[in-house]
Design brief:
alpha+beta; D-amino Acid Aminotransferase, Chain A, domain 1; D-amino Acid Aminotransferase, Chain A, domain 2; 2 domains; nine-stranded mixed beta sheet; seven-stranded antiparallel beta sheet
Length: 295
């Protein structure tokens, strides 16, 4: 079963202070998000109307906004966006089951110029929700991935709208029948196109450290804390390309992927070609945290 984000029949969204049907929502063709990709975004998971790890998503959104120098004023704040998201879940009858909340902020609409617009140009705020079905079957059997060069800019720690390298790598993975692309930069694994990668090398759980080359994933952070509670040592040392053949387990994490075992990489089996013991354990504890609505 594949994860999906389905449109609800009511389909109410939020744009710049108004709740309205998606079909009536409008954004200017001069919006800098459209013209330059000049904006940031976040995606949250909702389970029975409760948002998972909202505080951490708020903090990351604030960091991204600060990083690209977009200032929000008045009622427009990440904390307020979460409240709007909860209202959208209610408006769209998504208080039962699972859903995703999407929040996007751009630098606003104005005459096209590379430099920032005048201070009186307000940012554009767009928020929406959609029904979501997890990758339950694939998480049980394990997925495949491919390796691709990491061609992104040097501030991957900011969750911006500039996703073209991610899109191209993701499409290559799809064309090759893989679930995700593992990105390689300077001879080491960084992350996926929309996920963080973890691997077990010689019995040690490894992942790339949080620096400018990866996005500090929320599920990554939650899992790091859960691993510590389980006395599982996590070594934040990048996995070298030369170490990939030594991987006994490999998995990725993300808001909509949870802990996803990778059992095949570039058409070669990882370890024994099935989800490993440590991966299964971390799947279970993350599922328990999601069920409890941990924040």
């Amino acid at each position: 079963m594949s994860a999906t984000a389905d449109r609800d029949p009511k389909d109410i969204v939020y744009v710049n202070g108004s709740f309205l049907p998606r079909a009536q929502a409008r954004v200017s063709v001069e919006d800098r998000g459209f013209v330059f990709g000049d904006g940031v975004y976040e995606v949250l998971r909702a389970i029975n109307g409760k948002l998972f790890a909202a505080r951490f998503h708020n903090q990351r959104l604030e960091r991204s906004l600060d990083g690209v120098r977009i200032a929000l004023e008045g009622d427009h704040s990440p904390a307020r966006f979460v409240e709007i998201g909860r209202q959208l879940l209610k408006e769209n009858n998504l208080l039962k089951g699972q859903a995703t909340l999407y929040m996007q902020v751009t630098r606003g609409a104005t005459i096209r110029a590379h430099n920032f617009p005048p201070p009186d140009v307000a940012p554009t705020v767009y928020i929406s929700v959609a029904r979501f079905t997890p990758y339950t079957d694939l998480a049980e059997s394990g997925a495949s991935a491919i390796t691709q060069p990491d061609l992104r800019w040097a501030r991957c720690d900011l969750k911006t709208l500039n996703l073209l390298p991610n899109v191209l790598a993701s499409q290559t993975a799809k064309e090759r029948g893989a679930f995700e692309a593992m990105l390689i930069r300077d001879g080491v694994v960084t992350e996926g196109t929309k996920t963080n990668f973890f691997g077990v090398v010689n019995g040690s759980l490894r992942t790339h450290p949080c620096d400018s080359h990866i996005l500090p994933g929320i599920t990554r952070s939650v899992l790091r804390d859960l691993a510590r509670d389980l006395k599982i040592e996590l070594d934040e040392t990048p996995i070298k390309v030369s170490e990939i053949p030594k991987l006994s387990e490999l998995f990725l994490t993300g808001t909509t992927t949870d802990v996803m075992p990778i059992v095949k990489l570039d058409d070669k089996p990882v370890g024994k070609g099935r989800p490993g013991e440590l991966t299964r354990k971390l799947q279970r504890v993350l599922a328990e945290s999601l069920a409890s609505g941990g924040d």
